[in-house]
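Re: the 378-residue chain
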Amino acid sequence: MLQCIFVLSDSGEVLLEKQLTGHRVDRAICDWFWNQILTQGDSLKFLCRVADVLSNYLDGLNEDLIKDNFVIVYELLDEMIDNGFPLTTEPNILREMIAPPNIVSKVLSVVTGNTSNVSNTLPGATASYVPWRKTDLKHATNEVYVDLVEEMDATINRDGNLVKCEIYGEVQVNSNLSGLPDLTLSFANPSIFNDVRFHPCVRLRPWELNQNLSFVPPDGQFKLMSYRVKKLKSTPIYVKPQFTSDSGTCRISVLVGIRNDPGKPIDNITVEFRLPPCVTASDLSPNYGSVNVLADKTCSWTIGRMPKDKAPSMSGTLVLETGMERLHVFPTFQVAFRIMGVALSGLKIDKLDLKNPLSRPHKGFRALTRGGEFQVRS
C-alpha cells in the first residue's frame, strides 16, 4: 500500500506532493530516500510504471514538463491510485479518461476557466474482463508490428580498451487487431537476457517455463517488455582522440571509423566533447561533416552517415589560458549513432503466433539500435 508520492527534481527539490491516505507523510522523508537505494520491489515497479505513463503523456519526463502540466499529473495520479493501491496503469485506457495536454486544451482552459481534463464517460474497457483493452474492437485491416529498439551504453578508456558495453532494449508493439487476440511471441535466443521487465498483459507462467511472451495486447502502441544485455565485447564504431600539448597550445586530432561492421549503414553519427573553462577552440576542421562550438564550450561534430570511401577525421588547435603550458584535464567524448535494421544485442524474434484470429493478420518486425551513454575517455 502506498501512502504518498513525491516527485523530485534532479537536485532533490519536491516538485509535486500527492498524499494517498489519511495518514500524512512529512516531506522530510525525501531526504532519506534521496540518499538511499529503494529495496521495496513492488513499490519500485509501480513507481516505474508511473514514470512510464507520465513520460507517455508528456512526451518526456523532466522538471519543466511536470511544472507545465501540474493539473494533468495530479489527475493521472488520482486515476492510477485508489486509497494507496494501484488501480489503472494502462496509458491507452487513461487517455480515454484524461485528455493528453495540447495547445487547444490549454487555450480552452484559459477561456472557459475549466482546468479539468477528466472525461465524463467511462472508458470502453470498464466492461471488459481484460482491463487494458476495450470490448468489441474492430479494425478494417488487422495488423500487428513488433519493433526491437535498443540503446548501447559503452565506456572506452584512454587506452582504447572497452571497460563497459551493454544494451538496454525495448520490445515495442503496435497492435491493431479486432476482437480479443491472444498472441505468443518467441525469441530465437532468449538466454541472452540479463534483466527483463514486462507489461501487465504478459502472462508470467509461459515465460518462466519456456521464455515465451503470451499476452492479450492493449489496442495501439505499447511497450511489451524491456530488457538488458550485459557484457558485450565490441562496439560498431570507434572514436580515437589524440592530443599533443606544448607551449600554450594543444593540437587535437579525432578519428572515427567502423570497428565491427553491423551489416547496415551507420548514420546520425555525432561526436561531442566539452572543453575545460581555460581552453578555447581554434580552426577545428573535419574532412567530413561539420563542427559547431556552442556557448558552453561544447564542440559538436556532426558526421551523419558513415562514408564508405574514407574514415572521418577532425583536427584543430586548442588555445590554453595564459600561463598554462599543457592541457592537464582531457575531455570525455560523447558518441551518438543510429543503425536501422539491426539489434546489436543479437536478439532475434523467432515467430509471432495468434490464436483463433478473426482474419489473417499482417505482421511486421523491425529493429533499431541507437547510441546511449557511449563515452570515450581521452
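Residues 41-58 form the longest helix (18 residues).
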